[in-house]
Amino acid sequence: MAGPITNWIRDAASGVGRRVREPAVPAATSDAAAASFATLTKKLDYLDASDIKRVREAYRFADEAHLGQFRASGEPYITHPIAVAGLCAEWKLDAQAIMAALMHDAMEDCGVTKVELIERFGAATADLVDGLTKLDKLQFSTKEESQAESFRKMLLAMARDVRVILIKLADRLHNMRTMGAMVATKRIRIARETLDIYAPIAHRLGLNQTYRELQELSFQHLKHWRHAALSKAVLRARGYRRDIVDRIQHEVEKAFADAKQKVQVFGREKTLYSIYAKMRDKHLSFAQVNDIFGFRIVVNTLPECYLALGALHQLYKPLPGRFKDYIAIPKANGYQSLHTTLVSPLGTAVEFQIRTEPMHAVAEKGIAAHWMYKVGGKGQAQDAQRLGALWLQSLVDIQDETRDASEFLEHVKIDLFPDAVYVFTPKSKIMALPRGATPVDFAYAIHSDVGDHCVAAKVNGDPVALRTELRSGDVVEVVTAPGARPNPGWLNFVRTGRARSKIRHYLKNMEQEESQQLGEKLLAQALRAEGLTLPDSDPSDAPAAAYWQALTKWSGNRTRADLLTDIGLGRKIAIIVAKRLAQLMLERGAKPDALTLTMGRYAAEDDATPTQGLVVIDGTEGASVQMAPCCRPIPGDDIVGYLGRGEGLLVHTAECSVGKRLFERDSERWITVDWAEEPSRAFETGVTLLLKNGKGVLAQVASAVSSAEADITHIDMDDEPASETTELRLLVSVRDRLHLADVMRTLRRAPAVLRVVRVKP
User: Fold this and answer.
1) Mean pLDDT across the chain, nearest whole number?
2) Which among 31, 435, 585, 683 is placed 20 to 30 Å from 755, CA to CA?
């Protein structure tokens, strides 16, 4: 652990402390570290003297902590934190962030504690360092789980303070620049992780310069030969096209001079990765990628952007459909520019981007421009900060509904989209959503309650399916109903992490509530067989609270709700828990009641409370009670219930062969169940038909089922070539056995039907 630093000699030239006694480190490497810190101090001229002094103290602390440690390249380890701090200084981050950058590996690699950092440098700096520290000290079952949990910790720390991710991106950028000394497998793993996670985060926060470099370096390590081949091709193309690029730049500058507009014209070249991605995604050859070169026009004020656009459109003809106004409608990460594609004198397409200086700063630095421009209070920088904060808040919302780290990372990956569609609410508010988003994503983007109760949608005034993909410019209206609830099928088409996490959270909560209600019902029934009634759940009832506390301690559950949920899901047996609860109650003076005992054993259903060992099925049970897919029972069948381990109550027919085998193996998990007198819904069951092949046979079957007032929910046929007969398997939704018999009689009367039987396991 790092201790107080002593024996310092002040370097007269740089003012940087240098240690006298360093037997393990060559003098040359120590000088290199000091020299690199001297370079860092030159970048910190925007800080005042007291802040620079605190940064120097953090450097000394980090230098002491990393003493004797070297990078794979052979350089002293301290050169890496100094380089990371230098990148943060280019973004003009404050002293706390620079200090955290210098010490970002101290807790993870050097055994320094957070308490020690708080004492030396304050809680704010210690929190930044802690947010950057991986969870390597905890035990995880897999490396992927450990990585996912570390990402979650970092992203949530980022949601509290965006400086965490800025330091992490600087750390990753320097690592990517200096990865040459690593073994190939590690280089590929880190490059893949960078391309999948860190580059999209940089893009999402508007740090386009960092985003492009991370992509380019990842591409170089992942596809080395393709990177080299493309690099040579671009060099050749640059030579071929130099004359035309120079000619366009000269003509553009002359056009602006004639219009008396002061602008800066810069040539812009597409990155190798973006060229590769375009060739891969659109199946193009290198020669077919015609927008490798482009131009950026930087003007002084916002109105001049549109004046510059007019001057360009008078000089060259614009390509229809290739103009985008990201000033009026900024991208989700705060990016603002006018994009237009013009036809050059040689007939090739050339893209121009027009923006102001502050827009350019936000375009390159994104959310980091907040620190670069905070003194002047530039509007665009504030917009970038606001839009970045909205995404960071969405991370907190996703975290609230997602306890599993891998699932959280999956939701975050979904939200790291490079493209967006811009749609309007009926009140003309603009909303940015990922490409491929649906009205359900739109509903959850407005509010989780709107999403939860969504039943239909209109796009541009026309009703559409909820899975319809939205397009830029669509006006979207969501129709809600108070009794509606999320559909599990929505998970197949929603695109935003927020919508996915909200739907999953709702479904899990519903399943838990239903399982808890079933567990309470089963425990109350089992306890009545002991002549006792279930204790109240009111915390103010001291004896009842004592019973539940002792029972949850015995069962290993944290709360009463968890115990009842486990009983409802079949993880614990109600009779065993009831006997333990009865023992606790008898020990504390409770006495069995003869009437309760009689009700528990003999009474019929009263006030919707079933008798001992009996659960009544009426169709409203939800996810906690399922009809077994092997026999698909319907009202009128003799049924039994199996409490599977973690699956809730599974209802089989009494004659089901699958159920009989389960009973022989696990008899204590079976309970008595019966149908309610008037079930609240229809139930599905399977029917097999043997048909004569011919025209219109399927129509005959559908007509017969419909005339019997039933519904077909699924149809399955053999894959064999057509012969004289074919077998058709239906799932039909019926009220009870009498209704099924009526459906089967109606089907037998159809001319094409030879045989009808109900499916049995």
Assistant:
1) 77
2) 683
